[in-house]
């Protein structure tokens, strides 16, 4: 039987984009039909892609998720005690697995807050929310369903109380520098003087460590990368020879970013029936599928400042492997 008390503590609402969000067809026309060829990373995450990413997080090479989770476990109580938030909004919340460290800290502090996860996957958030209201009897979950890349100005957020905005997973690094600044500017526009941003970012480090994290020995990341071609084949009537593409992960130190690429093993022709389009891929030609920018303390501080934010607290992993920062809006 459904528990009405728990059901009342889990609500959901659709959030309309504040700006137009491009479709898969539009992105493919813009990216695959240009040179060099590229695809936005958001199309990795169909059901299979999401499962593969969860598996990537368990590989020995992929340190970011473990390192961020360890920082949240070690400093969660200090973060929540300092933030003293009444409401916590998380952008790209996914399964809310790491957020539990913050909720555990609230539990230990007897400090209740409401949780507002924001993501495109309604079912994932509702499943996660149901588990959260079960495990935290004091917690209200208000799931917001939408694409945060479509803007934040339509979020139906509470107008009273202190708010903590959470943006984890190093996701900011997937944005080009100008878009990353724009994203932070939107976050700053949401914030009042007593609100805080909790941001997780990966750090610049040895190239071998970075490249291994995005090219694990078991080939899980390679399967994840190639899966985007399966998405195009399914959604756009494509005929990419998926297994004929080689996964590559290269650290571009000049731009401080990992570049994930798919390289064609042989020349072939691709048809996308839904777009009424055919084009040729040359042998060894590459499709860029993701940028993952890495930061130094100096570049992170400059990016925050450019977006109208000021770093307040900085929590570093050993050897500066990863950063969690608390930032507030500049006066």
Which short descriptors sum up this protein?
14 strands, alpha/beta, 331 residues, globular, 10 helices, eight-stranded mixed β-sheet, four-stranded mixed β-sheet
What is the ordering of alpha helices and beta strands? HEHEHHEHEHEEHEHHEEEEEHEE
Structural class of the helices, strands and pairings? alpha/beta
Strand content: 25-35%
Largest sheet: 8 strands, mixed
How large, in whole angstroms, is the Cα Rg? 20 Å
Q: For the record, give the distance between the C-alpha atoms at the N and C termini, rounded to a whole number.
A: 51 Å
Question: Count of DSSP helices?
Answer: 10
Give the total of beta strands. 14
Strand order of the largest sheet: 1-5-4-3-6-7-14-13
Helix content: 25-40%
Mean pLDDT over the residues: 95
What is the quaternary state of this protein?
Answer: single chain
Low-confidence stretches: none
Shape: globular
Structural notes for this entry:
This protein is of the alpha/beta class. The chain is 36% helix and 26% strand. The protein has helices spanning 4-8, 24-32, 47-56, 63-83, 99-109, 122-135, 177-190, 207-213, 220-236, 297-306, and strands at 10-14, 37-38, 87-91, 114-119, 141-145, 163-167, 196-202, 245-252, 257-264, 268-272, 277-281, 286-293, 309-316, 322-329. Strands 1-5-4-3-6-7-14-13 form an eight-stranded mixed beta sheet, sandwiched between helices. Helix 3 (47-56) packs antiparallel against helix 9 (220-236). The model has no long low-confidence stretch (mean pLDDT 95).
């Amino acid at each position: 039987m459904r528990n009405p008390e728990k059901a009342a503590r889990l609500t959901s609402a659709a959030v309309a984009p504040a700006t137009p969000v491009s479709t898969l067809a539009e992105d493919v026309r813009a990216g695959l039909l240009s040179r060099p060829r590229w695809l936005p990373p958001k199309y990795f995450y169909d059901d299979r892609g999401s499962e593969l990413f969860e598996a990537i997080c368990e590989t020995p090479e992929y340190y970011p998720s473990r390192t961020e989770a360890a920082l949240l476990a070690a400093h969660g109580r200090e973060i929540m005690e300092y933030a003293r938030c009444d409401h916590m909004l998380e952008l790209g919340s996914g399964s809310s697995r790491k957020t539990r460290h913050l909720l555990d800290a609230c539990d230990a502090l007897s400090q209740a807050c409401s949780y507002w996860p924001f993501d495109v996957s309604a079912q994932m958030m509702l499943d996660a929310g149901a588990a959260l209201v079960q495990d935290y009897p004091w917690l209200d979950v208000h799931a917001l369903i939408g694409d945060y890349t479509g803007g934040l100005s339509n979020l139906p957020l509470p107008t009273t109380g202190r708010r903590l905005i959470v943006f984890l997973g190093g996701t900011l690094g997937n944005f080009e520098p100008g878009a990353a600044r724009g994203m932070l500017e939107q976050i700053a526009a949401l914030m009042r003087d007593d609100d805080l941003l909790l941001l997780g970012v990966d750090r610049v480090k040895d190239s071998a460590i970075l490249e291994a994290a995005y090219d694990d020995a078991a080939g899980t990341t390679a399967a994840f990368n190639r899966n985007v071609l399966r998405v195009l084949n399914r959604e756009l009537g494509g005929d990419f020879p998926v297994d004929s593409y080689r996964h590559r992960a290269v650290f571009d130190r000049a731009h401080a970013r990992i570049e994930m690429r798919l390289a064609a093993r042989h020349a072939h022709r691709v048809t996308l029936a839904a777009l009424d389009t055919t084009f040729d891929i040359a042998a060894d030609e590459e499709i860029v599928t993701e940028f993952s920018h890495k930061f130094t303390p100096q570049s992170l501080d400059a990016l925050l400042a450019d977006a109208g934010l000021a770093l307040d607290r900085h929590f570093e992993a050993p050897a500066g492997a990863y950063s969690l920062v608390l930032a507030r809006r500049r006066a």
